[in-house]
Amino acid sequence: MLNLFRVIVRTRTATQVVCLSLLLCGVVSMSAAASLPAGIEVSLQTVQAKYGKDDAVMVKVTYRNVTSEAIKLLTWETALAGRVDEDFLRIVHEGSVVPYSGRHYKRYPPTDADYVTVYPGASVSATVDLSTGYSLSYKGDYLVSVKGGAVTSGSQKAPQVTIVLTSDRAIRFKQTPAFSGCFGDRPSQIDAALGSAERLARTASEDLRNNPVSVRGDARRYREWFGAYSESRWDRVQRNFDRIYSALSTRQITFICDDTSPFFAYVYINDPYKIYLGSVFWQVPQTGTDSKAGTIIHEVSHFTIVAGTDDVVYGQSGARSLANSNPNDAITNADSHEYFAENTPSLDMSTEPEPEPEPKPFIIQILQLLLFDD
């Protein structure tokens, strides 16, 4: 099987794109999309009515045998491990499917140990924390259902349930970065920059999401880097920053220090989440324009499974010109995303006018005239 990897190199001059052909030998991709056997009904039950930002989002999943014969149930892609190890649920928030962000396995074929016997009329249950496998980042209602299989409903139990998050919340399964060829204080510098990048990406995502629709057409910060407003372009940028933040806050990112490269950094867009740091990376500040944190956001945005950005232009001047001349390209440009997140110099999103000052009482106006009139 032949796989093409595109190398995106961040430089101050022009885009350098290198295509490498890698022959992948002896690697077998296997889908584990198992479906529930006939005769197994599934019910869901929330553990509490509402969940705060620090609560585990616990849901009880019950599998019941409604036939007259015993059924061997494969525990893969179920809750029976007591945790969300695979993508067996469908979760919808504000009309969008919440992506699965948990483990992906390469397995041997199942053995007897991977099955549980469910006898006629009996059931097996497990309670799992949804936030360990799905990006439940924003407050609101989430509709949860089980993928595949028959379902049953009843009071307190149903084929789908609604969970309510009362506030935005940090994703619970933060992973520590990995390093290769990075010595001395470089890992600590990278770790600090990664933390700043995560905060910048989250702020960018929230600023886009919370900006009033009525003023989006004139939002200065958006127009500066992405050009004229359209609903579809705004939504694309919003999704990009949602995914950038999710990647920075949930995925293990590997940093490879490559001092032979006279660039900020580079990535292979189909090989997430590895970032190769060049010599320029160590010459720039942690935050601000063209910073370490901004560079990490820039590079993560390139990955196909994140935002799939390209290097259309480089630098703030080029990004501003692109926003004015071609907004459709601006929303695909990595530097445009970096500068929006870095926000240096700072620009506001909302352009709602300042409220008019309260009029002074008439008596105060008269006194001012008497005391200060020459």
UniProtKB/TrEMBL annotation:
Keyword annotations: Hydrolase, Metal-binding, Metalloprotease, Protease, Signal, Zinc
Database matches in SUPFAM superfamilies: Metalloproteases ('zincins'), catalytic domain (SSF55486)
Domain Lysine-specific metallo-endopeptidase positions: 206-342
Record-level GO BP terms: proteolysis
Pfam family of the protein (one): Aspzincin_M35
Residues making up the signal peptide according to the UniProt record: 1-34
GO molecular function: metal ion binding; metalloendopeptidase activity
Keyword Protease assigned: yes
Keyword Protease listed: yes
Cofactors required: Zn(2+)
InterPro entries per UniProt: Fungal_M35_metalloproteases, Lys_MEP, MetalloPept_cat_dom_sf
PANTHER family with a match to the protein in the record: NEUTRAL PROTEASE 2-RELATED (PTHR37016:SF3), PTHR37016
Family of this protein: Belongs to the peptidase M35 family.
Annotated protein name in UniProt: Extracellular peptidase
Organism per entry: Arenicella xantha
